[in-house]
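Internal ticket - ligand job 434, calcium ion:
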Amino acid sequence: MGMRRIIHGMLIAASLAAAVVGSFAGVPEAAGSWASTGSMAERRHHHTATLLEDGRVLVAGGSPQHIQYETTEIFDLGTGTFSPAGVLNGPRKLSAAVGLADGRVLIVGGEMGGVPDLTVSDAEIYDPVVDAWTRTGPMNERRDFPRGVRLSDGRVLVAGSSDSLTSEIFDPVTGEWTPTGSMNTKRDGCTLTLLEDGRVLAAAGVDIGEFDAEVLDSAEIYDPAAGTWTMTGSLADPRCQHAAVRLEDGRVLVAGGTEEDTVVYDSAEIYDPAAGEWITTTPMLYPHWTLDMVLLPDGDVLVVGGAGYNFWFANTQLFHPATETWSEAGEMVERREYPVLTLLQDGRVLVTGGMGGVSALVLDTAEIWTPSGPPPGDCNGDGQISIGEVQRAVNMFLGEEPVDCGVDCDQNGAASLGEVQKVINGFLGGEVSC
Ligand SMILES: [Ca+2]
Ligand SMILES: [Ca+2]
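stdout (structure tokens):
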């Protein structure tokens, strides 16, 4: 290719860039998008959603308002629909569900309705092979808002309750519960996160006393070998209604929540298990409480949640641990708080139920988040568009080199002007997808 043609191409690239600067507001496009999928049979919040080994998702319990469900449903990614599944032996909401190593699902504790709500010690196991729930040994304590985590050896640790320091362990082989160490602080609504070394981090929560409630900035660690809880570094902000996830590097991200109903946090903190300390990281783009988050296959974290008392929220965001930055992840079709997220086997994310919509109702709807592909024209796959990659896209448009590098969004074998413009938008800093 002669120098004259290269310069000609560069000029076209420059003029295209100039042409689109005016129309491109500089607001990055979201790195993913939400779309409605099939609806559930029931309106649910405070339900559980668990990925089954075959890729389907089991949704259990929850409540539309003041009653609790014993019904469950299964989402089939292939058809995008929910269908009824085995019925629980008792209604429940605010339970903890944990996928077992053998493919079954354990659900424990929560509330079963009544005035006031009756707290349950009950535990049941779902067997997907026979599509049925069976009661297993009850816990030693009634737990109104338990948290559960599968330990490295396949047993399940359950902790957290408004009126007990205790924790206990379920053995799926015997179906029995064994009391283990007590926490140093009662922490209702804490998060429980399995660390890489097999220990478990319990972060923040609320210590509910007889006459008052203290939102906690403390955290503690369970050591399964010793069967004991030990205090670790404290968070910068006391928080409840927050969420936590273990990052690929083994650290734990905690974000959002509230100390009082009037203030919703955008703050985020990262726990380093090696140092036993928290560091404050970049705040979220939006404050969130009643949020849920999942670690994505690429190491980023998707965050979805409400944003305040009676304020439902559709905006979602991504945390990028490598740069400790946040970006837009797209708006949900419906605003929702208390969303429940499930990472699907294909890397997409299902959100079910929650409260919100246009009329503050509990929702029966579900949506799927699909991440954007690599930006069109990113020949070297670094996620950025360089001027050289713009040049190559222009060359493809001019027919001077084969159409490649994902420029051909509509896959018609040619690079159109519109497709080159997408590459230029990427060069200008937008997160662009086909
Ligand atoms: Ca590139
Ligand atoms: Ca094309």
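Auto-summary: The helical segments are 3-21, 387-397, 417-427. The first helix runs from residue 3 to 21.
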